[in-house]
From TrEMBL:
GO biological process, one term: malate transport
GO cellular component: membrane
Pfam families xrefs: ALMT (PF11744)
Predominant place of localization: membrane
Gene name of the record: LOC18613943
Keywords, ordered alphabetically: Ion channel, Ion transport, Membrane, Transmembrane, Transmembrane helix, Transport
Entry protein name: Aluminum-activated malate transporter 10
PANTHER family reported in the protein's UniProt record: ALUMINUM-ACTIVATED MALATE TRANSPORTER 10
Organism, as annotated: Theobroma cacao (Cacao)
Region Disordered: start-end pairs: 470-493
Amino acid sequence: MAKEAAGKLEWRTNVPDETSKKLEPDYGLVGKTWLRLKCVMGGLVMKVWGFLEKVWNLGVAEPRKVIHCARVGLALSIVSLFYYIRPLYDDFGGNVMWAVMTVVVVFEYTVGATLSKCINRATGTILAGALGVGIHWVADRSGDKLKPIVLGVSVFFFASAATFSRFIPSVKARFDYGAMIFILTFSLVSVSAYRMVELFELAQDRLSTVAIGASLCILVTMLFCPIWAGCELHRLIHQNMEKLVDSLDGCVAHYFKDSGNLTISEEDLNKKIQGYKCVLNSKATEESMCNFARWEPTHGRFNFGHPWKQYLKIGASLRRCAYCIETLNSCVGSDIEAPPCIRKHLSDKCLKVSSYSTNVLKELAITIMKMKKSSRIEFRVAEMNFAVQELRDALKSLPSHLLAPPSSTGEESTEAKSVPIKKADVLPPIMKVLPLITVVSLLEEIAARIGGVADAVEELASLAEFKPAKDRKPKQNLPTNKIISDNLNRQTI
């Protein structure tokens, strides 16, 4: 009986011990408030720490911005001495504030921008001051009744004329700030002339303090780690060429990745492809840098009268290439794929055109960077044109592939009927090949536009009088110009 009882199931109920329960602490109102305050302070500290980390990374990535901030602080510290030193303050008085304001408003990142604002401010102040004193002299001779009328009419006329001049494109590009300073100074002088007796001394003090602030800005920006707008423009054009090289190589390699030429990860490849967007967005920066570079004196390898406007033509040619690369990038993700035999028939030729086109851009980038005429650019362009001609010949042989008979049996198996038909399978052959033909035509157009970039760089080299580069030994496995021209003539015949 004991064994039978032991074999039976026993039902047990476990009652938890009240002492084994974990009691949640009751913090109360003060405790909960302290916890919330602690969480808020912790989040605030993390945000501040993240912001400081971003600031540190920005300073490490672009140390010239840190140098510019130090220069502004140095200029303001020096101009503040006119307040701290008693003899200087006795000479200028409260008008020293105009010198401080001039430093704050005029000091810019590049030397050209600072010179542009300094010259504009000085010219506008001189013209407005001299004109204001002259109008004041005429108003005094007109009598007490006509004096406010003469001053009011003069302010209306000259302020309107100066404001209208700011709408003129040539004036707005270079003298917009000067026109604004002219309006401000002339209005202050004309309005103050009605109540003040010592108007000439006011104009003289304002002119002297502006001259002090502007001169100090010019000296600091040119003597302490100068940042030249011309060098920045030169570097920007060089970087844009390198970005186009990466974008063109990346787009073609990604489109023909089944050919086995993709050696990097897709994430890095996508970053390289996006370089053309920087080229498309650089127009405003190029124009402003070109405008500021024209104000700068001779510096480094750039002489006075350097053809800065030619850089704008090169930038425009690069953007024309970037537009085609943007269209080419949109063809990469096409859902319709050409038959493998046709892709294989054109992939080598397309990759060859892409390679030779990027070689031209690389040679042009070296020409811009070293400011020396390239002895190989004609050879590179001839290579590119020869590769384009080969691509055209390969494209002409496509109809034989497209018109090939679909099948010789004329019967379909039952297994083939059971397979679901995809949308791409019912497309006519020409529709399947159309995206590939678009890529081919875009590569031809890109090669032609790169030729335009080469012409613009060659014109810059002649205008700026670039020195010829030392001859580099050509590679033995590359055809010479004579062989390329002979091949082109044979194909034409």
